[in-house]
Amino acid sequence: MAPPMSANEFLAALRREGATVVEVDGWRNHNRAGHGLWGPVNGVMIHHSATSGTDSTVRLCWNGYDELPGPLCHGVIAKDGAIHLVGCGRANHAGGGDGDVLKAVIAEKRLPPVRWADTDGNVHFYGFECVNRGDGEDPWPQDQLLAVEQVAAAICRHHGWTERSVIGHLEWRPGKSDPVGFSMEWLRERVRERLK
Fold first, then answer.
1. Which pairs with CB-CB distance under 8 Å and at least 24 residues apart come from 112-118?
2. Which helix (H) or strand (E) element contains residue 157?
3. What is the model's pTM?
4. Where does residue 134 fall: left (phi above 0), alpha (psi -120 to 50 degrees), or beta otherwise?
5. Which of 46, 74, 128, 137 is the most buried (most CB within 10 A)?
């Protein structure tokens, strides 16, 4: 468990990891403050956006939609590897998920199968939407995959976490499939190697 990073700490952590960062105007104060807690934080959650196009995905993740106001994540990871920061603080990305999974993340143990949605993940996870349709056919360019690795490692390094603090939405909430196109074990292994 850790207090969330400030906007300056977040930006510095990403840049130290070599990430290409795009600061969307107003991201430092864009959050769901007043709609639930933000922190203590315990991990990083990776999503695919189920969209295509960087600009439209950034707008969607900034604004949200009628049923779910933005920000819908902390950053949007584009196909070219640029990380567009859209929020700092509580974001509507994780939703309800399995409290046993959260316990495993906190203990940095192997995750149990996801069974129910009894815990608010927006409190506990940094979230990143990766521009990908999630249909199993939309490619994942190497620059984008490197950026996913950099984001996850940057946050883990700042907080002193291992790769076990990185999870996919599908590992958190029943019925979710994201990210489609790579396995979370593969990503965790890349993060583990990067943190050495």
1. 114/170, 114/171, 114/172, 114/173, 114/174, 115/174, 116/174, 117/173, 117/174
2. helix 142-159
3. 0.98
4. left
5. 74
Q: Are strands 82-85 and 96-97 parallel, antiparallel or unpaired?
A: unpaired
Q: Which amino acid is at 107?
A: A
- Within 28-186, strands assigned E span 43-48, 64-65, 68-69, 75-77, 82-85, 96-97, 119-120, 125-130, 166-168
Report pLDDT digits (tens) over 99-136: 999 999 999 999 999 999 999 999 999 999 999 999 99
Distance CA 70, CA 63 (A): 5
Answer for the pair 117, 56: CB distance below 8 angstroms, yes or no. Answer: no
* Three-state DSSP state, 149: helix
